[in-house]
Design goal:
Blueprint: H1 2-40, H2 44-56, H3 63-76, H4 80-93, H5 98-111, H6 115-128, H7 142-155, H8 159-166, H9 181-198
């Protein structure tokens, strides 16, 4: 009889603890969704605090996503070193996470001006998922990756390689041998940037 009560108590405790874990998992997922909504609405301070709350929730579920959201947000807040730490931590948990790779690509292209690293990150996204679309914001997708690859190659004065990436997202034909090729390519990049932001 004593053994029966011990087994019953253990079973109740097990399912009770399991329920708490599930509640924490759901709470973390809700906080992550809220964080990305705030990010999309440009409420970066609130988004940062929300992602920190998600990370403080004591489960490993979606930790890579919460770290990525925090990284994205801190880039917008110009907390670049902290953003990079969180994105690297996300990629330690999930080395093929395209969202974290994309955030790092933006950081290295737009802020650190290290175009070679940006190119490496972009190529890793294409290798992982050639049809990638950002999970929490469908305005970012593989076309944005190709554009940043083209822009990075352009900054390195690799104009032919830049044009090759540009052709992935544009049907406009340019002549690489023309005297105005680089200026026309820069103009096309500007047009594509506006077009992708509008979509």
């Amino acid at each position: 009889m004593k053994n029966y009560y011990i087994i019953t108590l253990f079973t109740l405790l097990f399912f009770s603890c399991e329920s708490i874990v599930f509640d924490d998992d759901e709470k973390k997922i809700d906080l992550i969704r809220t964080g990305f909504t705030l990010y999309k609405n440009e409420k970066y301070d609130l988004a940062e605090e929300t992602f920190k709350l998600a990370l403080a929730t004591g489960t490993v579920v979606r930790k890579d996503t919460a770290l990525t959201g925090l990284g994205f947000t801190q880039i917008r807040l110009y907390k670049l070193d902290s953003a990079l730490v969180h994105l690297d931590n996300a990629l330690t948990l999930n080395p093929t996470m395209s969202e974290a790779l994309y955030a790092k690509m933006i950081l290295y292209y737009a802020y650190k001006k290290d175009y070679s690293i940006a190119i490496d990150l972009g190529n890793r996204i294409i290798s992982n998922d050639p049809n990638w679309m950002f999970l929490y914001d469908n305005t970012s997708n593989i076309k944005d990756v190709y554009l940043h690859l083209a822009l990075s190659e352009f900054e390195l004065q690799h104009y032919v390689q830049s044009y090759e990436f540009t052709q992935k997202i544009s049907s406009k034909i340019l002549d690489p041998n023309a005297s105005n090729f680089t200026s026309e390519l820069a103009k096309l990049h500007s047009e594509l940037s506006i077009e992708l932001k509008a979509n």
